[in-house]
Amino acid sequence: MTVLERFSVDDRVVIVTGASSGLGVAFAKGFVEAGARVVLAARRADKLEETAALIDSLGGTSLTVVADISDPEQAGALMDSAMGEFGQVDVLINNAGIGTAVPAVHETPEQFRSVVNINLNGSYWAAQAAGRVMQPGSSIVNISSILGSTSAGLPQAAYSASKAAIGGLTRDLAQQWGRRKGIRVNAIAPGYFATQMTQEYPDGYPPAIGPRLVLGRTGDPEELAATAIWLASPASSYVTGQTIVVDGGVTIM
């Protein structure tokens, strides 16, 4: 295998959770452009169909599954659907997530629990279900955030806590499944990428973090998709248990 061939994800079956909007769409599009087949999973059927239409326009192969991965049974059913359609699951992009920007003294227990339930618990249930069907050489990529290790001027206790926990989850699954199952588990910690979630931020943000953007700009979702493709490919075959920061330099300031 040449170095260039190591970057190939041709014909791999890639599950993307949270594929109905934002970065999930970018991940799905990127993997299809790189030659993979994708399983699109999210809670919103109408938005999933929009993503599926995009994949069709690119000549890609996809399967749409409506699923709430915070429910272990639905996470398992997602894997069953992928296996039934394609006979394999090679990559899981654990992208589904929500966020709040609520001051800590005002955040309700329901708000906090809902964020943790989807961002952390959902990532675990999806990974657990994937780990049961994946073969050696497979890859799980959890989507964390730089807010798991730094702050950005917004009150996001639930979101930050859930994303910090993703790092620990990633390391533990990597050590459990590396030698025994041959499954690599890594995470990506994005910085500021314009998405539907960030559109809900208050006025003046992200310019407030402008001085911390070492590269002088916010991120392009295709740059994040490219990182995920690398982590899913044999090019990163000796990388596991790591959180790869993709933030334009924010966390070095």
Tell me which CATH architecture applies here.
3-Layer(aba) Sandwich
Contiguous uncertain segments of 5+ residues:
none
Q: How much helical structure, as a percent, in the residues?
A: 40-55%
Fold-level CATH name: Rossmann fold
String of helices and strands: EHEHEHEHEHEHE
What is the average of the pLDDT values?
A: 93
* Count of helical stretches: 6
CATH superfamily: NAD(P)-binding Rossmann-like Domain
The main sheet comes to:
7 strands, parallel
Q: Strand order of the main beta sheet, please?
A: 3-2-1-4-5-6-7
Task: Give the total of beta strands.
Answer: 7
Q: In CATH, what is the class?
A: Alpha Beta
Strand content: 5-15%
Coarse structural class: alpha/beta
User: How many discrete domains?
Assistant: 1
Domain Ketoreductase: 12-191
Protein name: Short-chain dehydrogenase
Family: Belongs to the short-chain dehydrogenases/reductases (SDR) family.
Keywords: Oxidoreductase
Task: Write a structural description.
- The protein is an alpha/beta fold and 253 residues long.
- Helix content is 40%, strand content 14%.
- Strands 3-2-1-4-5-6-7 form a 7-stranded parallel β-sheet, with helices on both faces.
- Helix 3 (72-86) packs parallel to helix 4 (109-133).
- The model has no long low-confidence stretch (mean pLDDT 93).
List the helices and strands and how they pair.
Layout: E1 13-17, H1 22-33, E2 37-42, H2 45-57, E3 62-66, H3 72-86, E4 91-94, H4 109-133, E5 139-143, H5 157-181, E6 184-190, H6 221-232, E7 243-246
Parallel strand pairs: 1-2, 1-4, 2-3, 4-5, 5-6, 6-7
